[in-house]
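Replying to the earlier thread about multi-chain prediction with a worked example.

Input:
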Amino acid sequence: MVEEYVAPQDEVVEAADVSKEEVTLATEVFQAIVKTSKGFRMYLPNNPLLARFIDELKGKFGKFLAAHGEYKLDIDQFELRYKGKVIYENRDPKESMAFKMHADGIRFLIFSEGIEEYELCEFLEIVGKDRPNDVDDDIVTLLWEKNLPHLTYLLAEDFLEFDSVGGGPVAPTSQQDKISGIYRSIAEAAPPPSPMLIPQKILTLTDEETEWLRKNREEEETRKPLDEVIQIITSILVGEKDPAMFGEFVEIMAKLTESLASAGEIKYTLSLVKFLGNLATNEHIPQSGRELISGAMGTVFSERTVKALATTIDTTELVEPEELLELLRFFGRPLLGRTCELLCIVEKMKMRKAIIQALIEVGHDSPEVFYPFLSDQRWYVVRNMVFILNRIGSPAALDQVGRLISHRELQVRREVLTYLERIPDPKAKTYILKFLRDDVSSIRIRALQVLAASRSVFALKPIAALATSEQFAERDMAEKKAVFEAIGELGADQVIPMFRDMLMKKFWFNKAREKESVACAVAGLLKIRSAAAVKLLQEASAVKSDEVRDFIVHAIDSMTAESAKSVTGP
Amino acid sequence: MGSDIRPELLEKEMIRLGKTLVTHFFVLLKTAQNYNEGHAATNTPIANVLNVIREIHRKNEEAALRLKGGYLILGELRLKPDAAGFEAFKFLMSEMKRYLIGGITFNPTVTAEDIGKFVYVFKEIEPIPTPQTHERFLERMQQRMIVTIDLETLGDVEEGIEGFDEAELTDNRVRSRKIYYQTVHAVSEVMDNAKMGQTLRLRKSKRVVQSLIDQLLAAETNLIGLTTIRCHDEYTYSHSVNVCILSLAMAQRIGLSKAKLCELGMAALFHDIGKSEIPLAILNKPSEFTREEWEVMQKHPLLGVKKLMKLKGLDALSARIITGAFEHHLNCDFSGYPRLPYKRLSLFGRIISIADCYDGLTSSRVYSRIPHPPDKALRFMLARAGKAYDPIILKLFVNCVGIYPVGALLLLNTQELCVVMENNLDPEKWNAPKVKIIADSKGSEIEGDVVDLANTSCGRTVVEALDPNRYKIEVSHYIV
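Result:
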């Protein structure tokens, strides 16, 4: 990138008709313009630094204009000159202010005395902004529309010679023969009647008519051009009989709807999609026409639209979640895949919620639509899809979801476990058993709790085996307790002998292990809550040392209170 | 002159002060548009205007701006705008014309308060010119007790073209003509692209429309005069430009903003873009259309919409062009085409429809093939007011072009032949336009003067409006 060059003061060469001081001052003014222009791009309008730049610029301009009346710049492709002296040069087309103005045809720019702050700001706003080449609102148009009183420009075309644009038809040098013809004709004809004038009263605008014009002018200033075009195209689709023309406009309407969707104009999109939907079922339209519309509707929510809409959603506040939800509901089942794609790329949480809601509602009977996304590389996509399947509660997806038990991402596995918990199919619980081998303790605990809560007795044996495995000793206390709680829950009185061993066993030189063993047994017995369980605890409290007795007594109290509660009722 | 300085220096100084007054008054008008009366933002512009008035009075000169022959004058001195001040001159002149103000004199006792009140009268009066506009302006000034500023009526000051710098008038005409052909050129480029199915780029056209608007605000008559050019080889293009000029002339009287004028100008310029899809064999057919050909021709509004949607895409500007292309043959009572369940007509559609029809009727390359002279075309259209054309906009149109529109060929009581150059602003004088004598009483073609027929001392009245097409007279030759 070429560095921006604003002629430093010592490089300014004195010219015959311009003093060094004048050129120096002109250079300083443009330096201030460049700095403020950058400030406009970097800071918010209320930023104090930007306000300072503007003040400095005003000061420089005021000083210059007071001394020299006007500030006139010649604009070359990459340079700006003041009275023939280069005061600015930047050869980077993306950055160069000279290039931007030159490319738009501006050849002279003149700032006059009295220029106001708002004019400077408007100018910098217009010139500083990056605009795509295909946009018709170029610098000239914007300056022209702003009508800034102290800023004038001259364009390249202002210097074009008349002939270069074609002088039009060359007028005949004389039309005498034709004029003579008129006079001959007049002489031959009867004397002309007095000219019939149009009565003035029918030409004078009344107060009411003036008022009507005023109202129309005001309406025109606020009219929404898009509404007009939509009305036009809808009327064409409703009334056009020529099949070829009808087909062209179906395509146009589909493209328009697609563009509106991409731009986040959801209200418009929705109304057009509804219109097309109604038209597709209108019996006055020939079958071929209706098929055309149905086909076109499928193209509205394209891959391109999805990407553009996602960008609009994430970068603007144009789209409301409720509107988006309604639109996606209307797109319905045929476009579920695209809606999933949208969910994959939208980042705003509240919008993702709306999309998920739409997918839950629309995809209720079509869980298979979500399957391809379960193998997506993006974990959050997979998590969202499992979440949706969970909310749908579709057992049909069990095997698909079951494959994700060992997904690398914890949040996916957690979501899978939630899904499996919710599905009443017993097969789901066998999948949960696999979570006991998960790397993460919290997942294993949750799996134990789910199995226990669902009374999955088949899990007792594997859980018990887990409790006796070598690795079990390394697990933390919370997990150990969860294991014995599950054993208690699932095994009931049949596992009391196991808990008796754990309670009564003495660890002569390892009090900590003894306490742990008692705590795990108590946790399991608390889940059993039978008379045998209470009796065992009472036995243990009589023989155990003070350190663990209090703990056992507390468990007995808790169980007694619980059973009293269950007898007396709530 | 009671000043000590030399006359030539004083003249130079007065011109400078005049230009400064115009610029400051322009800034004040613009500021008043954006802020309510009494707002602090108007203080400096008011003070600037007052200072320059005081300076003029100190030199014992009259602080009076007058509109004469299309120029602003301070006392006896013509103020010629430089590049930097062009916008201010243009704006002030158009505002004065809009309110039929021929001159504004600031008396030596004028105060900042008076100037402050005066500038807001512009805001209070509806700027659509009617015979009552000027009276209302004066009434409003009386109500506001502004007695230190005097106004003159435009008709009283505007003495016509006689006595003015012919070279300057020619400059203006040359400029108008240049812009006209630049516009034809720009239209032809876009239409050619449309024909070849290439993406439509409207930037250049937009520029020329902006120039047209600027020129229209500065010298409306010259541009309207240019619409009399009948360029047979490029009928579609010159017709488009004519419709654009005539539409803009109407719209600027309605007081549309510059941005809206630009949109309308573009819509008018490309109202026939759909014709780029009509086979040339039909478009240029020298004889009457068959029923089938007529049906093809009637498709051009829809083809226009299609072209624009496909080749331009939808943005605010193209939406307005689409509306113009679609609506311009619908007719006020929707009896036109395309016949579709569409029952609204925008202001743009109403305006373009009238401009299109008028230019079509007065041209020789249209479907009817029977060109009308301007006055007959107006009668024809007035007979269809309320049916084909919006009656109020049509009235406004006649207000623009006059009973004898620019380009009308007239026979005078003196047996002289003349072409209408400009209409009088006073409705009472609409039957007596400013004309250029093109043949003497014996029928010899001459380079005659421009005469204001409203001036009774000239002894000339209109006897008959002739059809220039019947005699194959190229009236534009005399106008532009």
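The mean pLDDT of chain A is 85.

Feel free to reuse this layout for your own posts.
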